[in-house]
Amino acid sequence: MPRSAPALAAGLLCLGLVGCALASTRPPTTYDLVAPRSFAGTKKPAAWQLVVYEPTAVHALETDRLMVRPTADQVSYYKGIVWSDRLPRLVQARMIETFQNSGAVKAVSASNGQYALATELRSFQIDVSSGRAAAEVEIFARLINASSGKVVATKGFSARVPATTDSPGDAVAALNQAFTEVLQDTTAWVASRRV
């Protein structure tokens, strides 16, 4: 049955409006974390293999969104800004890459190893509660004997880096710098464990 002209015109108008709405919806800007490539005083690699588990995190960090903390007890996110992956998975990938770049251990992967690095992502955000933007990264690490499950050593690592402004680009640059400091410290700590 042929459609009437008014019904067809109304249908095309609706499609046009939907098309306009879709065209005006901008995709989010995606940022990535970078693994450090240079390491001070790199020693002989530890003679064991390391598995790096995906970090655990509270629900607010289990996301691909970039967190900002306007007050000490409030959490928000940058609008239209995302990480290239869910944050714990991205941190795991860059942590593995850091160990590979450093040569700190004989081998590193996400699945097999004689020792395991289990981490807890405690903070990864831009803090603006003091009126000045600063990147805060905190990771708590446990080195575990993979066969026995015994915790061999534990340590917390944190860094706070002022951001030039609270704009997304400056925020990500400061977070990358703070993350690099934490990764370098974590790598040096793991490499120093002669287990």
Task: Explain what you see.
This protein has 195 residues and is α/β, with parallel strands linked by helices. It has one domain: Rossmann fold, CATH 3.40.50. The chain is 31% helix and 36% strand. It contains three helices and nine strands, in the order αβββββαββββα. Strands 1, 2, 3, 4, 5, 6, 7, 8 and 9 form a nine-stranded mixed β-sheet that branches. β8 and β9 form a beta hairpin. The chain is elongated and about 50 Å long. About 10% of the residues have low confidence.
H/I helix tally: 3
Q: State mean pLDDT (0 to 100 scale).
A: 87
Question: In the residues, how many domains can be counted?
Answer: 1
Query: How many strands appear in the DSSP assignment?
Result: 9
What is the alpha-carbon Rg in Å?
Answer: 22 Å
Helix content: 25-40%
The biggest beta sheet reads: 9 strands, mixed
Which CATH architecture is right? 3-Layer(aba) Sandwich
Indicate the structural class.
alpha/beta
Helix-strand layout with pairing:
Blueprint: H1 5-24, E1 29-31, E2 46-52, E3 56-57, E4 65-71, E5 74-83, H2 87-102, E6 105-109, E7 115-127, E8 134-145, E9 151-162, H3 168-192
Parallel strand pairs: 1-5, 2-6, 2-7, 3-7, 4-7
Antiparallel strand pairs: 4-5, 7-8, 8-9
Summarize the structure.
The chain is 31% helix and 36% strand.
Name the descriptors:
nine-stranded mixed sheet; 3 helices; 31% helix; 195 residues; alpha/beta
